[in-house]
# Entry
Amino acid sequence: MEETKLIELAIDARKLAYTPYSHFAVGAALVTKDGKTFVGANIENASYPLCMCAERNAIYQAYLQGVKKEDIEALVVVADTDDPCSPCGACRQVISELLNKDAKIIMTNLKGNTKVVTVEQLLPFAFSEEDLR
Ligand code: THU
# Structure
């Protein structure tokens, strides 16, 4: 799938964000190697630590439909930021567990500034299941 199409899906998903506290809406869209797409937006809660980020919602949606890490090609994250929207630390940890190291993370904003990195570049030296052995 073209990058621009996936970005459009993330921008559309962002409209579904529930953000009464931060008023900061984030959209995400994930595409598999065989072209299936899954979207997410951030969903907040009056109990602030329960807020869930857009990226994690999109990844969990995909897993709940049977997608495996090796199936995932790319994940877009978009917000109305000056620079391309950068995934938070918690999302980086989840991304590094649930996507392959060479999957693409496409960070963008509503102005169209885009930066693409691999999962490994997003979170080098990640803590992983290998460290638990
Ligand atoms: N947020 C995301 O959805 N993704 C990120 O990577 C950064 C932060 C959300 C969480 C919270 O609802 C709002 O943005 C402000 O932090």
User: Anything to note?
Assistant: The helical segments are 3-14, 54-64, 89-98, 119-122.
